[in-house]
Amino acid sequence: MQRFLSTNSTVTAPVSVDVPLLSNQDVIMNISLIKEYHENMSKKDASLFVMQGLQRLGIAHVAYKRNPALTSEERFRAMLLRAAMVKDALIVIDRPFKIISHLENAGFLFQSLSEIDDLFIHCHIFEYRWMKEKYGDLCL
User: Fold this and answer.
1) Residue 65: predicted pLDDT
2) Strand pairing of 122-126 and 90-94?
3) Which residues in 40-65 are b (16+ Cβ under 10 Å) and which e?
4) Considering its fold, how many domains does the chain have in total?
5) Tens of pLDDT along 25-72?
6) DSSP assignment of 60-82, as one string?
7) b or e along 70-80 (b: 16 or more beta carbons within 10 Å of the residue's beta carbon)?
8) Whole-angstrom Cα distance, residue 62 to residue 28?
9) For residue 99, what is the domain's CATH number?
């Protein structure tokens, strides 16, 4: 993945265990900070925008929870929404089954992506070869 990121000049937005949510901030703050910083959006407007995304992903109930209080599915979706907040970025999901190890297949990943697909243009998933069976016919 590092080689891919270094050879692509596009702004990337990672979803990875190597880029965790800030543990001293709640989910809504973790995500809204992206809009506040990158687009100079007000805290109120950014929070409202993020809350709509959380609702679309079915995790609005975690808005004021911190990272340690989340399930792995909630954490993945929060990290995905955070990545989608970076305007015109390439979302790079790094080894999603390392984040949500108990899933049997990639259905949850693709469902999550489809629920916010208007917020991003491209997404690449990097995974170990031995996880290929979890992706079925979608794996190249």
Assistant:
1) 98
2) parallel
3) ebeeeebbebbeebbebbebbebbee
4) 1
5) 999 999 999 999 999 999 999 999 999 999 999 999 999 999 999 999
6) GGGTT-BGGGS-HHHHHHHHHHH
7) beebbbbbbbb
8) 8
9) 3.40.50.300
72-84 vs 43-56: helix axis angle to the nearest 10?
Answer: 130
**Terminal-residue alpha carbon distance, the chain:** 16
- The amino acid sitting at 4 is F
- Provide CB contacts within 8 A for 3, sequence distance 6+: none
* Two structure tokens written together for 90: 């390439």
Average pLDDT over residues 82-87: 96
Q: Using the predicted structure, report yes or no on whether residue 140 has a pLDDT greater than 60.
A: no
Is residue 132 within 8 Å of 139, Cβ to Cβ?
Answer: yes
Domain extent for 42: 2-138
